[in-house]
Amino acid sequence: MEIKVVKNILEANEVIASQNRGHFAEKGIYVVNLMGSPGAGKTTLLEKTLERLKEKKRIAVIEGDIATSRDAERIAAYAIPTVQINTGAACHLDGNMVRGGLKELDLDQIDLLIVENVGNLVCPAEFKIGENDKVMIISVPEGDDKPLKYPLMFQVSSVLLLNKIDLLPYLDFDIERFQNDALKVNPKLKIMAISCKTGEGLDNWFRWIEEMAASPFARNSSATKSRRH
Amino acid sequence: MHEFGIAQSLLEIVEQEALPYRGSRVTRVKLMIGKLSGVIPDALRFAFEAISMGGIAEGASLVIEEVPLRITCKQCRKVSIMDDPFLICPHCEGTDVEMIAGRELEIKEMEIEDGNQGSQEHP
Questions:
Q1: Residue A124 contacts by C-beta under 8 Å, 6 or more apart in sequence?
Q2: Of A17-21, B37-41, B64-68, which gets the smallest average pLDDT?
Q3: Where are the alpha helices (DSSP H) in chain A?
């Protein structure tokens, strides 16, 4: 006997992600899901971003890692609310894990939540967590062929940060080819070339994230919150 | 790599749907998997086989239909099937396109066999 089912396999996750989304919207929090390979520079980018913006915005961080709390310890040095989620075997964060992490945060005291996903170019792209935007960071040593090899992550991201451009003179990385391929895969992608080491290009990123976190929807509700500083 | 998580969600749906047919077994599950989904059919089969053991879906085969990327162009309104993962209209080179297929991770139907029929094997 055949039974029709017709269901999205990820439906359970999408329901939770949209509930998370609802909570964030209600509290006026702008949420970034930061994705990239291990070693692309996610945590370093986060550190630079906190250095620059922590006096201007009330920021919180959720750190997703398969194991250890090393990243959360790095972020804790900035004295902002940080939650570590260890995914165990899972190669990505999902809506449910983020929902669990939110219990440890005071959402009334946050304007911007940055969720650092597990280092991986495939799986995080598939699982929504309730974010406003997905931001992808990739680094020059990873090679210029990645947009065609891992198209989904490029497709779901709003911003692509190409990190470690200070290494361009030493590597065979064709930046034009990389940008062309990335834009074929996602013509709406904002590409920013940066170096977290030298600071080059980071101002573009800071400007973008600051603008997004001050979007009308975030500002409306944050007007009702009390400022921490 | 995330096939185990997906197999887990799939198994939950299958077992839920099979609940009214207690004593039967699930023999086949039909799926639509988008080419862009990043799911490797063999890895999904392997994961599903491993985690479905001991349950109503043990031994069920996964019939996977791969769905190509399809886009519709908002400029020239043409629909195209894309061999490459590009979101650019091959007719007018417009970039204002909408992805209409290619990211599916869907279960379509499943086949259930009455437990009494194969009673020796599955009492």
A1: A33, A35, A91, A92, A93, A117, A118, A153
A2: B37-41
A3: 11-27, 42-53, 70-76, 95-102, 146-149, 151-156, 175-185, 202-213, 216-222
Q: How far apart are CA A209 and CA A190, in angstroms?
A: 12
- This prediction has a pTM of 0.89
The whole-angstrom distance between A10's CA and the closest CA on chain B is 7
Residue A66 contacts residue A97 (beta carbons within 8 Å): no
Going from the C-alpha of B116 to that of each of A2, B21, B112, the distances in angstroms are: 17, 12, 12
Which stretches of chain B are assigned E, i.e. beta strand?
25-34, 61-67, 69-73, 79-82, 97-101, 105-113
* Class for the domain spanning A11-214: alpha beta
User: What are the sequence ranges of the domains in chain A?
Assistant: 11-214
The pair of three-digit structure tokens given for residue A156, joined into one six-digit string: 């779901």
Are A122 and B1 inside 8 Å of each other by CB? yes
CB contact under 8 A, B112 and A188: no
Q: What tokens does A144 get?
A: 């210029």
Cβ pair A117, A81 in contact under 8 A: no
The full set of domains in chain B, from first to last, is 3-68+102-113 (3.30.2320.50)
Residue B7, SS3? helix
Return the pLDDT at B115: 67
- To which residue do tokens 């996602």 refer? A186
- Residue numbers of chain A with a pLDDT score lower than 70: 216-229
> What does the pLDDT look like over A6-39, one tens digit per residue?
999 999 999 999 999 999 999 999 999 999 999 9
Chain B nearest CA to A6, separation (Å): 4
Q: How many CB atoms lie within 10 A of CB A176?
A: 8
Q: Mean pLDDT, to the nearest integer, of B102-112?
A: 95
ipTM rounded to 2 decimals? 0.82
Contact A25, A110 (CB under 8 A): no
Is A8 at the interface with chain B, CB within 8 A?
yes
- pLDDT(B18) > 50: yes
Residue whose structure tokens are 């080179």? B93
Chain B residue nearest residue A13, CA to CA: B9
Q: How far is B92 from chain A (nearest CA, A)?
A: 14
